[in-house]
Write a structure and sequence with these properties.
By secondary structure, this protein is of the alpha+beta class. About 40% of the residues lie in helices and about 20% in strands. The chain has a domain at about 40-45 and about 55-160. It has helices at about 1-20, 25-35, 105-115, 140-145, 150-160, 175-185, and strands spanning about 40-45, 55-65, 75, 85-90, 90-95, 120-125, 130-135. This is Preprotein translocase subunit YajC. It comes from Vreelandella boliviensis LC1.
Amino acid sequence: MDWIIIVFILMLVIAPVMWLKPSPRQKRQQVLRSQIAKQGVSIKLEKPPLHYFRGTMPAYRWHFCQEGPGPDFLLVRDSNASEALEPYYAGWRWRIAPLRPLPDNAAIPLKALLERLPQDALVVQSTPYALTLWWWESQTAERFATYLPEFQQLRESLRGRADQPFSQPLKGTEQASSTVSDQDAGLS
């Protein structure tokens, strides 16, 4: 009888430790995130741009440089999109279409990527700051690494195609404003 009580007490002590141990899926996700982050992709858990979605989802981002911002668009997989949205390609719909049509050197890699993405990839988004993939991380790091060249090619072809140009200060404005202030000073 004493052995049964000792085993029961040991199980009570070990059980919380076992709960803290990462599951095989969590281990795979940790390896995936660390290996992909080494390739220059930033990964965060955020609320995706989906209606009626609660919680967070992994967002994989390829950032544009400041000198070459990207266009605004948002593609949603048919399984998470309304029928009212305009179909684009291979089971994806525009939630936000780009203001200007994408050139062939951007549209071709985008279409190729949309065909290859796993079924748990739900959103592809471009903003002036980054190209983002929202997905549930169903694949291994080795498999996802096969997408990296296509994402990098797409980012490079979208770079500098911002819908609204970022304003740069005009040359000579400082001189014009100092002349105006000098004239105002002379009037007083």
